[in-house]
Write a structure and sequence with these properties.
This protein has ten helices and 13 strands. Helix 4 packs parallel to helix 6 and helix 6 crosses helix 7. It folds into two domains: 109 residues, no CATH class; 256 residues, Beta-lactamase (3-Layer(aba) Sandwich). The strands form four sheets. Strands 6-5-13-12-11 form a five-stranded antiparallel beta sheet, with helices on both faces. By secondary structure, the protein is of the alpha+beta class.
């Protein structure tokens, strides 16, 4: 019958940080990423170095009050020159005003982020956004790419990455009481205690339908607990070079201590795209699933993607093709979306919008980014 239901972290910064050398293995070289203006080489040695590293990036110093100051090497040198002039009592009223505003975290999108073109009037209003080439290694657009923001269910790309690395798709998972999601309004696939699923089924349900119960099931199966899996997520983020990221759950349900940045999501998503199973999952419009419940009866469910481009709710520009992505929405995070796109020459791009006011703004501003892809 069928039913339907501390050793200091060594930083080597090209041309900026003097006197730092390292003979250890480099785990990330920003010169090989799309946002290549940063010329930062990261060496991660011990777990205890994480907090030091996040707060004391030589190329992108963080403001303790706002945790969201981003600047290039050239901007750093300019600020250093300004500070030297102040110490020498050489005053310049305009420069002094600009320095004060930067220290207080005043929002100035025309100068806050070096990736954003101040002459470009076609900007986004969302909290942050990024467009970067995967194949061309070109930083096309950025707004507040290093700001720490809530990612909502875009978090699940990291959950998927850990699953790809640590689990076998054929593994059986019995849904247990500690996998149940009780938060009001959370998006659920409808799994119940005793249901038996495979990792593959949970993986596709996670990325296509964004089921928070699928996220919990994968996390506890792989990490033993939500906390254990979150530690795995944070360790992987660190190894990828993420410095503005901290996860406390596999789903993205809101927690004040659960945050990331557009740039860190770019790093995570770029790693996910190395896996064919990930690309296949994010390209699906829908997903059918069949599994046994606790009594042995067959359950069949049908899930539709949360990507509104794929259900024809919104159109994207004819000059590009959207190959897939991951959405996320909470009251605190706003509407979020990360996409894998290609131009007419099949050159790949990653586009990110975080903190849009609603779905209409999210997709209209994503189209702004997609229209910036070179034609």
């Amino acid at each position: 019958m069928k039913k339907i239901r501390i050793l200091p972290l060594l930083l080597l910064v090209t041309g900026t940080l003097v006197g730092c050398t390292s003979s250890r293995t480099l785990v990330k070289d920003y010169k090989n990423t799309a946002l290549s203006a940063k010329t930062l080489i990261i060496n991660i040695n011990q777990e205890d170095d994480w907090e030091f590293f996040g707060k004391n990036l030589a190329v992108f110093p963080k403001n303790e009050k706002t945790i969201s100051v981003s600047e290039t090497k050239e901007e750093s040198e300019t600020e250093e020159e300004s500070e030297t002039e102040e110490e020498s009592s050489i005053s310049d009223e305009d420069e002094s005003t600009e320095t004060t505003e930067a220290e207080e975290g005043v929002d100035d999108t025309s100068s806050e982020n070096s990736l954003e073109n101040p002459k470009d009037t076609n900007q986004i209003d969302s909290k942050s956004g990024l467009l970067a080439g995967i194949d061309t290694l070109e930083n096309v657009y950025g707004k507040n790419v290093f700001d720490r923001v809530y990612p909502a269910s875009v978090t699940k790309i990291m959950t998927a990455l850990i699953a790809l690395e640590k689990a076998n798709f054929s593994d059986k998972v019995t849904f247990t009481e500690d996998m149940v999601v009780t938060e009001y309004g959370a998006k659920l696939c409808g799994f119940n205690v005793g249901d038996e699923l495979t990792v593959e089924q949970l993986f596709y349900s996670l990325l296509i339908y964004s089921g928070n119960d699928a996220a919990n099931a994968l996390a506890i199966h792989i990490g033993g607990s939500i906390e254990g899996f979150s530690d795995m997520m944070n360790k992987k983020a660190k190894n990828l070079g993420c410095v503005d990221t901290h996860f406390v759950n596999p789903s993205g349900l809101h927690d004040n201590d659960h945050y990331t940045s557009a740039y860190d999501l770019y790093l995570i998503f770029n790693e996910c795209l190395k896996y064919d199973s990930f690309i296949d999952a994010i390209r699906q419009r829908s997903y059918s699933i069949s599994y046994k419940d606790a009594s042995g009866e067959i359950i069949e469910n049908y899930y539709t993607t949360t990507n509104q481009y794929f259900v024809d709710a919104y159109d994207y520009p004819d000059s590009v093709r959207v190959l897939g992505g991951k959405t996320g929405t909470t009251d605190e995070a706003g509407s979020c979306l990360i996409l894998y796109d290609v131009d007419k020459n099949s050159q790949g791009y990653i586009s990110v919008i975080l903190g849009a006011d609603d779905s209409d703004e999210l997709y209209s501003e994503m189209n702004i980014l997609l229209n910036k892809i070179p034609k």
